[in-house]
Write a structure and sequence with these properties.
The protein has about 150 residues and is α/β, with parallel strands linked by helices. The protein has helices spanning about 20, 25-40, 55-65, 80-90, 130-145; strands at about 1-5, 45-50, 70-75, 95-100, 120-125. Helix 2 (about 25-40) runs parallel beside helix 5 and helix 3 (about 55-65) packs parallel to helix 4 (about 80-90). The N and C termini lie close together (about 10 Å). The protein binds ligand CA2.
């Protein structure tokens, strides 16, 4: 079983800025924890980060032949991107959305999420642990569908 983990814009800055909102873990540390949990679950995890909407769309399209499911933190694009939503719907792979913070408890513009409706569910507000929960629940659904 193969899972693609996608991180959206600015998440490459994790650990260096705004730790009061996003925590102190770096993206590399988060990715290592996801890969380690994947290994425990018998799942091969690949991850990628991009600041570009088009690159994220390309990665989702590429996952059609390279992954069984997707964990995605679309970051700021969650609130604006019809293109990422359409890409997820087009590839029709099971996906789980993750947010480190809880966008519903933040500014009103973060309350709109265009990507969530293309996902099985959303994990938000639990910091890096949210990625592990998202991976675990994605794997539960993939195994149930086998
Ligand atoms: O809470 C999340 O995971 C978000 O997806 C993060 C996005 C934000 O636009 C969403 O509303 C919620 C922002 C990512 C910015 O990441 C930074 C990391 C470190 C320092 C500055 C920004």
């Amino acid at each position: 079983m193969r899972v693609l983990v996608l991180h959206g814009p600015n998440l490459n800055l994790l650990g260096s800025r705004q730790p009061e909102i996003y925590g102190e873990a770096t993206l590399a540390e988060i990715d290592s924890a996801i890969v380690a949990r994947g290994a425990e679950l018998g799942v091969e995890v690949r991850s990628a980060q991009s600041n570009s909407e088009g690159a994220l769309v390309d990665a989702i399209q590429g996952a059609r032949d390279a992954a069984d499911g997707i964990v995605i933190n679309p970051a700021g694009y969650s609130h604006t991107s019809v293109a990422i939503r359409d890409a997820l719907l087009a590839v029709a792979l099971p996906a789980v959305e993750v947010h480190l913070s809880n966008p519903s408890a933040r500014e009103e513009f973060r309350h709109v999420d265009l990507v969530a409706g293309a996902c099985l569910g959303v994990v938000a507000g639990f910091g890096p642990n949210g990625y592990l929960v998202a991976l675990e629940q994605l794997v539960v659904r993939l195994r149930a569908a086998d």
